[in-house]
Amino acid sequence: MHHFFVDPSQVLDEKVTIKGNDVNHIKNVLRMKVGEELLISNGIDMDYYCKIESISDDEIVAVVLNEEFAGTELPCEIYLFQGLPKSDKMELIIQKAVELGAKAIVPVATKRCVVKLDDKKEASKLKRWQAISESAAKQSRRVIIPEVMPVMSFKEAINLAKTFDLGIIPYENFKDMEETRNILSKLDKGMKIGIFIGPEGGFDDSEISYAMENGVKPISLGKRILRTETAGLAILSVIMFRIEEM
Asked: Which of 58, 81, 90, 102 has its CA 20 to 30 A from that of 130?
């Protein structure tokens, strides 16, 4: 069943009105017709199973057949702070992070980042990245579309994470798996968690020191060195598994 998102204000009197780019997609790409069914989420907490009632150039109106509280979100909020990687790796990272339950993805400019984005390039990238997040949210039956936030400096990212319940930073020189398990054992529903992942060259030692000075805890992802596009997904998978049914 095709999945779309609307603002809660577009749900009224047991009907949902779809506007914007999704109208063209439903009408001209999917070629859906009156009477066909689709799933619509309000971006907060509800899923609506609907049947198309009318199609026009500007909007599509669907009748709500059934509604239910959406239980597909993790019982915690996870922010992935991702050091800017080369080429199109960020697109894969965003797609998979959304599938695994991340609340937001924050691109971070670190000392060893090769990629440098000016304002024009950043705006274009953010638009593309947000579209990837929306597509992944539809595919994975998320009830929200995770935000891809504007690029932050490392210090800005750490300052944001300082307001969270837990910040962790996988670090190849941290070998204490027992301490890693101890940190992850404290995960609980309702927590706000920040995960810091370095770019291809990893974090500079000064960045690790700064993170630790500000309460972000180093952890180990095992004896193997993981690529930047693998590391975040590995720890997201572990957190999802531990906290999914809490």
From this structure: 58
